[in-house]
Amino acid sequence: xxxxxxxxxxxxxxxxxxxxxxxxxxxxxxxxxxxxxxxxxxxxxxxxxxxxxxxxxxxxxxxxxxxxxxxxxxxxxxxx
Length: 80
Known about the structure:
Layout: E1 2-3, E2 11-12, H1 22-42, H2 53-79
Antiparallel strand pairs: 1-2
């Protein structure tokens, strides 16, 4: 059993019944790595309180727009 994060109670790869697949384990490890990267780069976590709900919505929308651009690029590559 591996604990996630410094103070987190979530468990990766449940020993008894494997509640998560290897793919989900991979995603969790990537989330952990991004959290560390963000903490090191910006010296702040997602628990920050300086942003409004609208600020969070705008950040989420910007991320979604970036994803749409990446998806469009991949679609075009599939057509080649």
